[in-house]
Amino acid sequence: MDQIVTIYANYSLQTEVLAASIRSTLHVVQVAMIGAHCATIPIGVLRQLINHPLTQAGLEHFLADAKKVVNTAK
After folding, report:
1. E strand or H helix at 58
2. Rounded to 5 degrees, what are φ and ψ at 38?
3. What is the pLDDT of residue 74?
4. Do residue 10 and residue 34 come from a single domain?
5. Range of 4's domain?
6. Which terminal CB of the chain, N or C, has fewer other CB atoms within 10 Å?
7. Does 2 share its domain with 35?
């Protein structure tokens, strides 16, 4: 895929690259880094992207901090 993205860019071809057959979160990162404009991503992979353990930990930390701010503002 990176070759076709490079060719299109070299010749200023007005087209978009669709990444298909995405099977993992790593594939999502790879095609984004290569320069795909859009991708067909199964719902299970989308859920994995959203429900990453670090995302959950960050959200919990953010909510705890927000609660402290609200409590001190009262």
Report:
1. helix 53-73
2. -155, 165
3. 65
4. yes
5. 1-41
6. C
7. yes
Number of domains observed in the structure of the chain: 2
Cβ density class 3-24: b for 16+ within 10 Å, e for less: eeeeeeeeeeeeeebebeebee
Pull the structure tokens for residue 29.
């990162």
- Displacement of CA 58 from its chain's centroid (Å): 16
Q: CB atoms < 10 A from the CB of 31, how many? A: 23
The pLDDT tens digits for 2-45 are 899 999 999 999 999 999 999 999 999 999 999 999 999 999 99
> Could you read off the pLDDT of 44-56 as tens digits, one per residue?
999 998 888 888 8
Same domain? For 36 and 19 the reply is yes
